[in-house]
Each structure stands twice: as structure tokens, then as C-alpha cells.
Amino acid sequence: MPRRAGGVDLYQRGDQFAGPAGGTAALALDAPGLARPTAHGGIPPRNTGPFTAAPFTATRLRGAGPGGAGPGGAQGAFDRFGGRFADLDLAPDLGARIGSAEWWRGLATLGALLGAAWLLSPGGLRPLPGPVPALPDDASLAAGRAQAIAPLAWGADSGSRMAATDLVRPLAETPERPVIELTATVGAGDGFRRALARAGVGREDLATVTRLIGDAVPAGDIRPGTRIDIRLGRRPDKRVARPLDALAFRARFDLRLEVTRGDTGLTLTRVPIAVDRTPLRITGVVGSSLYRAARAAGAPARAVETYLRAVATKMSVGEIGSDARFDLIIAQQRAATGEVELGELLYAGLSQGRRRVQLLKWTVDGRDQWFEASGVGERRGALARPVSGRQTSGFGMRLHPLLGYNRFHRGIDFGAPHGAPVYAVTDGRVAFAGRSGGHGNHVRLNHDGGLGSGYSHLSRIAVRPGQPVRRGQVIGYVGSTGLSTGPHLHFEVYRQGQAIDPRKVSFTSTALLAGAELRAFRARLAGLMAVRPGAPPAFAKAPAGSGGGKAAE
Questions:
Q1: How far apart are CA 16 and CA 331, in angstroms?
Q2: Separation of first and last alpha carbons in the chain
Q3: Can you give the residue ranges of the M23ase beta-sheet core domain (predicted)?
Q4: Would 229 be classed as within a structural domain?
């Protein structure tokens, strides 16, 4: 409420730092120059009316507290000190305005409080002594362990246990299981015998089983990854191996072998498995991609790659249109137990308008080739490169680098690093392999049509005289033997024994089938063409020998 003092209205507010007898600050407002406070306690905003704000002065009312509150007393001095630090915050938020003056002031306050607590604490920071519980004895630990649930690593004791009586007899040794059943796997580079030995089969049983299995199938024919089911029986003493009671495994795709122990010892039982060897035929439209279309139709990736290489020998793959139809026939084995194995590609066909490609894989002289339906085989043209390297010397007259005079060079030289493999340029037979004067280590091959090839200055020879070789087969390695200034290959080509320029020679050979071989070829092709596309609808045992070649996963 306003108070009158000589015609001046005084408005007072409480001072939070004034204390119980603090005075109050008063604001003197001249009646004609300043608007009055409103009814709700606020002062209306200033306007530009006839009333204008006049200067005002702050005065201190005389309080009525104990000791007086005059301007010159002790209470007045305390009021003036409290008013000076009225807006000082000694405990600001340390999470805001980090690094500012207020933040450092709050940090100083915190440090002061902590220091005061440490100075006023009894005994500094030493821990206060307290009672220590006594450690439980063995009986208490056993009782607690019996009533607790513990993991297997800690013994897994649960429930109380009875103490041993006179009826309890200690075991001389830990009892064993009467029978152990396990599975052994033949690993890569491993053997059937070693797999059984690792499984714990004794020496006598191992020798007997190896002999029985060897009479049924060669041990080398057991492929890596074969799983062997083994059952070992009871043994009289831990110092001896367990006896073999039973053994069974899949020796071949069409044969299962079982070894069992009877009254007369170990015996072998052959369990034949019916196998359908009807090939798998896959056909479809090429579309945007021959490879993707064949793979989507169910052809294995390896078979599709072989198909593309075979078709490429007759036509460019880029010329195959989207409306062309592909035809693949793949060797397949389907066992009565449900297993399926896909083998190699047997037939590659392609139909594009009036153009039709039919290729059948046929073996001639121990080598598989793709033959057309007419019995015409692959046509082999230009020579393969004998070594990976650049040509350093040509055919004809040249200055010999060692002899120092002009001499006819009967071949061409290829620069290559020492030890690089040297390949046969085409099929042939080794006529000579050994040391040959200035040629050093020398290999000579005879080819069809009275042609031959020679390879000189080799560091090592990888073939022997009379051995047949195939195009691209390694016959030796680059060296610098004989009259040579460094590692390189001297390559020669002969026609009727005379050296000719290798760059002007092209070996071309085509295999042709005739007579009984041609009839067998056509019968085989007709049998494959009778196969319907898609997998057989139901299992049927096929005659032995029908279907494709050796199956592979």
C-alpha cells in the first residue's frame, strides 16, 4: 500500500537480503508526472498523452526492526552490502555456459564445499573401521553349495547328499560306456585306413577291415568327404583298443559296404543301390543372355561354360540371337536313396533359324573332342605360342652373338625368364629329348603331315622320347644351356626334316570318324536325342552302362 510523505506517494518492496529487520526500498513518484499503479499491481505502459514520466528517486524507509534500521546504523550497512550482491549466483548450472565467468564461479563454489567437507571430516579420508564377517568353514560351504544352483563348470551340485555308509564301496576305476558310436570322415589327401585309425580302431581290426574293403573296391576310389559310421564295443581293459562291432559307408554312388562282427569275426556285406543314369536334358530360349538363360533353366555353371566353349568353335557367341534355342544334355545319376549327381556336358546344341549346331563329345586316341553330327571333329589351326615372352630374333641370316660372324638362324628366339614353362605348339610325339651340342638341352617333336618342332637351350626337360604330348602341354623350362648368351628359347619348325620359317606355318588337322566308330557315334547321338527335356518324373533303374560318362559333383 502507498504511504503519503509530504505529498509524495512511496511504494515499497521487500528486500530478500535485508534480514528480519531489514528496511524496504521505496520509490517516490510525483503525482503529476507518473502514472499510478493499476489495481492488479502493475504499472501501465508509458504513453504519449498529457502525462509524462518525471525523474524519480529511490529512498529507504525507516524500518521497525530490533536495533533500528536507520541509514547510518549497522542494519543499514548490512542492507547496503546485501543489495550490492543481490544478483550474485554462487551455484550456477555447471552443465551450461562452460568456460564462462559464472561457470568458473560455480566450480570454485563446488571446490570450496568439497574442501570444507574434507577439512571437517573426522580423520581425513581414512575409512571407518567396521565389523568383518568370519569366513565360513568347509561344512558351511558344502551346505550352501548343496542348496544352490551352480553352473556345470562349478560342479552343478543341487540338493542335499547323504553321507556314505558301510554299504558304499569305492570304485577302482571310472566305468566306461559299453558302446561308442561315432562318425569318421575321409579328408583330402587322407586315406581310408588313417581315418579309421584316428577313430580308435585297433590294429588287428584295421588290417581285417582294410583287406575286406580292398576286395570290394580299391582304397584309392574312396573319395575325400566320405562319411564312415563306426560302432566300437566294450573292451576288457582300458589298456587295449575297443573292438570294432560295425562299420558302414557309401563306397560308390551305387554301392554301400557294411562290416559287422559275428561269431566268426568281421564279415563284409555289399548293399547295391539302384541308380538311374538317364542324362538330364535342358532346353530353352536364349533371350537377353545365353548364360543366364541356361543357368535359370537349371544347368550347372560348369556345364554352361563348357557349352559356350564348344559352340564358340563353330560360330561366334555374339552372333547368337535372342530367339535362338539352346539344348544341353548333361550326365546324371539318380540313386534310389534320393541322391543326385550331375556330371559333364555330353551334347551341345543350338538352333537359330535354318542354322543348327549339333556337337557330341567323343573320345579319340584318349582325348575328348567335340564332333559334329556328321562325324567331323574339331579343326585345329595355328600353332600355340611355345613360351610366354617377346620375340628377340627372327628367321634367316644374322650376326651370331657369340661366334662373331654372319650365320643362318634356323629358327626364332623368344626372350623369357629362367625357368619359364615351355609348351608344345600342337599335338605330337617326342622324337628326341636330351643334350644336343650347341642347342644345349633340346626337345624335338614330330607332328602329322611330316612336320616337326624343336625347342632348345632348356634348363630342364619335362618329357621323354616316345611320349605323346598334347597342344599346350609343358615339355620343358627356359634356360641358357649350349651356345647362349642368356635365358631364352630357340624355337624351330621342320618340314620333311628341313628348317622353315615358323611364322609361315599353320598346323591344321581335323578328326574324321569312319566305319564302326562312326556307327557307334551315330547310335550314341540318336540315344541322347531320344531323351526328353527335364528330369525324369519317377525313379527307374537303367541298364548298366547307359547314360553319360563319369559323374562328378
A1: 102
A2: 106
A3: 407-502
A4: yes
Among residues 254, 275, 222, which one has the least CA distance to residue 547? 275
Q: Would residue 307 count as lying in a domain? A: yes
Alpha carbon dihedral 102, 104, 105, 106, in 10-degree steps, equals 90
Beta strands in 136-254 (DSSP E): 180-185, 227-232, 244-252
Q: Under a CB-based contact definition with an 8 Å cutoff, are residues 221 and 186 in contact?
A: no
Q: What's 506-520 look like in SS3?
A: CCCEEEECCHHHHHH
Give dist(CA 266, CA 153) in Å, integer: 42
Which residues fall within 8 angstroms of residue 18, CB to CB, at 6 or more apart?
24, 63, 78, 79, 82
Pairwise CA distance, residues 454 & 458, whole Å? 11
Asked whether the predicted pLDDT for residue 431 surpasses 90, the reply is yes
Residues 359 and 419 in one domain: no
With CA atoms as reference, report the closest residue to 488 among 382, 384, 393.
Answer: 393
Q: What is the pLDDT of residue 546?
A: 36
Among 8, 45, 52, 51, residue whose Cα is nearest residue 26: 8
Highest mean pLDDT among 18-22, 414-418, 542-546: 414-418
Q: Specify the number of domains making up the chain.
A: 3
Q: Are residues 405 and 357 in the same domain?
A: no
CATH number at residue 334: 3.10.450.350
**Position 266: which residue type?**
L
Distance from C-alpha of 451 to C-alpha of 428, rounded to nearest angstrom: 10
| Nearest-angstrom CA–CA distance, 241 and 173 | 17
449: left (phi over 0), alpha (psi -120 to 50) or beta: left
Instruction: Flag whether 267 is in a domain.
Output: yes
pLDDT band at 540 (very low <50, low <70, confident <90, very high): very low
What is the rounded distance in angstroms from the CA atom of residue 126 to the CA atom of residue 123?
A: 6
Helices (H) and strands (E) in the chain, counts: 8, 29
Extract the C-alpha cell encoding 95.
552443465
Bridge partner residues of 252 (DSSP): 255
Q: Do 477 and 400 belong together in one domain?
A: yes
Structural domain harbouring 293: 276-372
Assigned domain for 187 exists: yes
**Residue 261 and residue 297 in one domain:** no
In the chain, what's the furthest Cα-to-Cα distance? 148
pLDDT for residue 155 is more than 70: no
| CA pseudo-torsion sign 116, 119, 125, 130 | negative
pTM, two decimals, is 0.48
Confidence band, pLDDT 50/70/90 cuts, at residue 316? confident
Do 445 and 412 reside in the same domain of the chain? Answer: yes
* 268/185 same-domain check: yes
For residue range 459-475, what is the model confidence (pLDDT) as tens digits? 999 999 999 998 888 99
State the pairing for strand pair 390-393/396-399: unpaired
Say which CATH number the domain at 401 has: 2.70.70.10
Buried b (16+ CB within 10 A) or exposed e, 341-358: ebbbbbbbbbebeeeebb
Instruction: Please check whether residue 248 is in contact with residue 256, taking contact to mean a CB–CB distance below 8 angstroms.
Output: yes
